């Protein structure tokens, strides 16, 4: 442990007192949500383990390690895991296991199109119309395991599970489009109206143009689009397709510089 001036231990307090560290951590966590909880004692930190009981069954990936948990009263339970599996595999595990167990993916506000990469690292599942809601996050740590966060929201008043969002049809027609592995995607806006909707982004990747076009075409097909045509020249590649929910031709294009 490093020491600061005056001989105080940087992480554990003046006497290396674990209770003092726990009190400091819970007080600081409580301060972020002072109106939610009556006192810092409503925040419990559990090192290296899950809470003794969970209100619903939450599966864990094979071989994962439990870093710890946080319980915020009766409102929220957060679990931190380390996994040797890639982030995409962890998210696929939860998608398969939770949907098979009866969880559903809620409809959220907003529109699809190119994302910064955050949306493809998380997923939300609902157990019933009033929750609980389970937020799953997975991201690789540089030189380390996959960081997995499970946030179980128990408060029905702020749950996404019972809300209904009726966005414009065209706005919801384009799915979230995530970058290829190792790529750096920067959304640059979009919009539209009536019979047209657009999304733009800049992508930095080592893939060639044909591979980039194929990457996004597969995501459109997974969202229910049918590929109708494709083409490429020296600096531009494109796909045209039809959404199964509306019979209108739409195109996806990307260019290299």
Q: How would you describe the overall organization of this protein?
A:
With 257 residues, the chain is an alpha+beta fold. The protein folds into two domains: 18-158, TATA-Binding Protein; 184-191 and 198-255, no CATH class. The protein has helices spanning 18-32, 87-100, 209-222, and strands at residues 43-47, 65-72, 76-83, 113-114, 122-126, 133-140, 146-153, 176-177, 184-193, 196-204, 225-232, 236-243, 246-255. The strands form four sheets. Strands 1-2-3-7-6-5 form a six-stranded antiparallel β-sheet, sandwiched between helices. Strands 11-12-13 form a three-stranded antiparallel β-sheet, covered by helices on one side. A two-stranded parallel sheet has the order 4-8. The longest helix is centred in the N-terminal third of the chain and has 15 residues, at 18-32. Mean pLDDT is 76; it is low at 1-14 and 246-252.
- Largest sheet, order of strands side by side? 1-2-3-7-6-5
How would the global form be characterised? elongated
Please give the domain count.
Answer: 2
Kindly state the mean pLDDT as a whole number?
Answer: 76
Work out the strand percent: 35-45%
Give the N-terminus to C-terminus distance in angstroms.
50 Å
Determine the structural class based on helices, strands and strand pairing.
alpha+beta
How would you spell out the order of helices and strands?
A: HEEEHEEEEEEEHEEE
Helical fraction equals 10-25%
CATH architecture of the largest domain: 2-Layer Sandwich
Please count the beta strands (DSSP E, at least 2 residues each): 13
CATH class of the largest domain: Alpha Beta
SS element count, helices: 3
The CATH topology name of the largest domain reads TATA-Binding Protein
